[in-house]
Amino acid sequence: MSLPRPRFHLAPARNWMNDPNGLVHTGGRWHAFFQYNPAGNDWGNMSWGHASSPDLLHWEEHPVALAHRPGEQIFSGSVVAGPGDALTAFYTSAYAHGIQAQSRATSLDGGLTWTPDAANPVLDRDSSDFRDPKVVALPGGGWLMLAVEAVERRVVFYASDDLESWRETGSFGPLGPTGVVWECPDLVRLPVEGSDAAAWVLLLSTNPVGDAPDPAGSAMHYVVGDLVGDVFRADEDVLLPVDHGRDFYAGVTFHDAPGGAAVMLAWMNNWRYAHAVPTAPWRGAMSLPRTLGLRRIAGALRLVQHPVLPAAPDATPLPEAGIDPHALIEIRRDPADTGILRIRLDGEADAAVEIVHDPTARTLTVSRTGEAAQTLHPDFAGARVAPLLEAGVAVFTIVLDGPLLEVFADRGATVLSHLVTLGAGHVAVRATSEGAEAPAVRIVGLDNAQEGR
Ligand code: FRU
Question: Is 161 a catalytic residue?
Answer without folding.
Answer: no
